[in-house]
Amino acid sequence: MKIALTHDHLFQIGGAENVLLELHKIFPQSPVYTLINNPEKTELFRDFDVRTSFLDKLPFAKSHFKWYLSLMPIAWERFDFSEYDIVISSSSAFSKGILTAPNTLHISYCHSPVRYLWSDAHRYVEELKQPKIIKKILPFILNSLRTWDYTAAQRVDKFIANSEFVAKRIKKYYQREAKVIYPPVDTTSFKINPDLGDYYVLVSRLRPYKRVDIVIKAFNQLHLPLKIIGSGEEEASLKKIAKSNIEFLGEVDNKTRNSLLSRALAFIHPQEEDFGIAAVEAMASGRPVIAYKSGGALETVIDNFSGKFFDEQSWEALADAVINFQTCLKDFDPYKIKDYAEKFSASRFEREIKDFAASSWQEFSGKKLPL
To answer: Pairing state of beta strands 289-292 and 307-310?
Structure first.
């Protein structure tokens, strides 16, 4: 059996990249096809057989990849997968748009239908920091890409969604059914620490839709210690509005990150995520999650057992949730929370992916998959 993996681009390490790592552990001989690879920022993939598109060689592709947005569909279509039996695409953008031969099974693990084409299209244009002329032209480009993206989704033989939340969006935007297989969380790397600190913690890329701004506003009012792990385009503006009780740690190594998670009073999750791996990692450390009641959090957090929900995406609602949480902190059992987090383990992901690939291949080809 010849199996290939595809991934939109490799220039950061996040939840989607963790899924790719686990897929490669399951199918270790598989090459990884991607549009752009920045080895300086993706050292975890340095030993992989990574095959890039022509975009990787264009000027400023690694630092300003959005310049080449309109070329991404054709870049994916130029890859030749005719030698493979199965291709598994890890996609939150265009990697599902590959062209495969009639005898090649294409399974797409969909992290989300392309946000800036579908669910977040209007907000994407409004928040984009570009000249007015670009903002006027962009809707026409996005319209063309949206048509292509829908067509590309019809080429996929089997869809996997990373949550029920995403499966509903796949159905809405692509009119396709999807099997839900939750992303892998390396739960064995996280331990319960009985020596708790006095702080709350947030792990996130600092981007507008992550809503870190409401967390800062809430903790400015609460005067409670907050540690923020992560970086991004909003870092400078967020630092300007944060008071001295809020600490920006930037990117930290896994050991430091895991230690900070295990000693936090709770993990703050203010955004609507497709799944939300960092929140599950906090629970794997035995720590409860204070989460906005929407998206993937509804499938990972159990109210008053593994965390607390707040209903409105505002700093006032979050502040109220933190105050309420403090009154019942001792009611949360870290050992029960950690046991619950095991349902999202990497071993469970491996088993479900293998089972799905085997059943899909037998349905597609009439043969058994030799895993």
So the answer is: parallel
